[in-house]
Backbone:
């Protein structure tokens, strides 16, 4: 969790929903589960959200740690 998440109460689509199947697979479940198109689209959206958050985080870090160039340079 980032500090930004605490201050921003905006819920972004692409993470978890109430309709998610959070059941734990048991040892007797031998078959491999297949991904549906809905699940694949949600994974794609999650990836897009993560890359957007990463880019925003990089921009904020660059703004925090950028160096100021003095306008009056004398040699």
Residues:
């Amino acid at each position: 969790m980032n500090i930004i998440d605490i201050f921003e109460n905006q819920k972004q689509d692409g993470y978890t929903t109430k309709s998610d199947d959070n059941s734990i697979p048991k040892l007797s479940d031998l078959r491999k589960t297949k991904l549906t198109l809905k699940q694949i689209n949600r994974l794609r959206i999650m990836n897009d959200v993560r890359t957007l958050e990463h880019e925003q985080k990089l921009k904020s870090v660059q703004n925090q740690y950028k160096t100021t160039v003095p306008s009056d340079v004398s040699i």
Q: What stands out?
A: The CA atoms of residues 63 and 70 lie 17 Å apart. The mean pLDDT is 80. The chain is about 45% helix and 0% strand.
